Amino acid sequence: MADVVPVKVFGSSSIGVYIVANNKMALVPPDVPEKIDDEVRNTLGDVVVRATVAKSPLLGIFVVMNDNGVLVPGIALEEEISMLKGLGLNVGVLHTKYTAIANLIVANNKAAVVSPILEPENRKIVADVLGVEVFVDSLSNSPLVGSLAVANSRGVLVAPDATDNDLRKLEKYLGVHADVGTVNRGRSFLRGGMVVNDRGALVGWETTGAEIMRILSTLFK
């Protein structure tokens, strides 16, 4: 049975702003306490790697990853990109004016849904680096598809404003069950409040029991 574990990072429930993970490794900021490393290892089963993007700890905003590759924005420093490549990761750089690329892409190992505002030349990089089919669409009439949905190989959890049509489209694109939910006592920006892979999820410490039940039933059924 998958675990969904509430945690704080730097005293904040917005843990998905700081941590990003796939099924092999999790990237965490350099000065996160050791106990967070332990929670990541125990819940997600991942190798923990200390990293930054543009010397920032906001990895969950700047990085998109699945098991095939990792995407970073053009503001990433050369040594940061080299470090990621040194881990054996397939790394792609998106040169876009929208540096918070994680707000614009929701992906699993099968497909990626990419915001209409992400430039067409970057869509090919997403497809090549993540090794997935790319669909261009918005969600709940918002271009911030990556901030409003979280996906793994079993499901996709979407902000409550999503329509039935939104859910049907996501199921078709990503090939998994879709349902709506929230995190951190009703917050709909799911990406900022949780870190998910196929084994489990870390969620912000304010997340309620009812929210955890919905996360379990959608992403780990």
Automatic annotation (TrEMBL):
GO terms for molecular function: ribosome binding; translation initiation factor activity. Pfam families: eIF-6. Keywords: Initiation factor, Protein biosynthesis. GO terms for biological process: cytosolic ribosome assembly. SMART domains: eIF6. Belongs to the eIF-6 family. Binds to the 50S ribosomal subunit and prevents its association with the 30S ribosomal subunit to form the 70S initiation complex. This is Translation initiation factor 6. It comes from Thermoproteus uzoniensis (strain 768-20). The gene is eif6.
